[in-house]
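If you are new to this repository, start here. Below is one unmodified record pulled from the training split, so you can see the exact layout before writing a loader.
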Amino acid sequence: MKDHHRKGECGQALAETALFAMLAVLMAFGLLAWIPTHRARTAATAAAYACSQFLSQSPDPSRAQRNAVNVAWKTLNADWSATAGVQYRVQVTPPSGPGLPGRCLVSFQARTLFDGLFGLSQGGWNSEWFISRSETWKARW
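And here is the target side for that same chain:
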């Protein structure tokens, strides 16, 4: 009777171990799937911030807009970002007058890792943005 009881405990321990192992594998896949989105958000934040800094520094609104868009795309396409397969959109609204705010919006859509494996749908667009106020003493337009 005593030996029979121990065999049952051993079987239960194996079942619990198998369940725990599957849970650990699912959690690992979940964490790995989060990496592309996190990298895309980091790159978008850096690009929106760089864009807003260039937007506030030029006294000419059209030139400021061109410079801001260029620096945002250079930031997004930099080697450090490692965001292959991510789609980006950059929208810049230049200040409409001296000392008024302008806005840089960088939207991104990252593919979900293991999308085919889990049958997940494509994620939606996410955005990062910064508002930048042109410095009145520089903006004499």
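Two things worth knowing about this chain: The CA atoms of residues 9 and 24 lie 22 Å apart. The longest helix spans residues 2-57.
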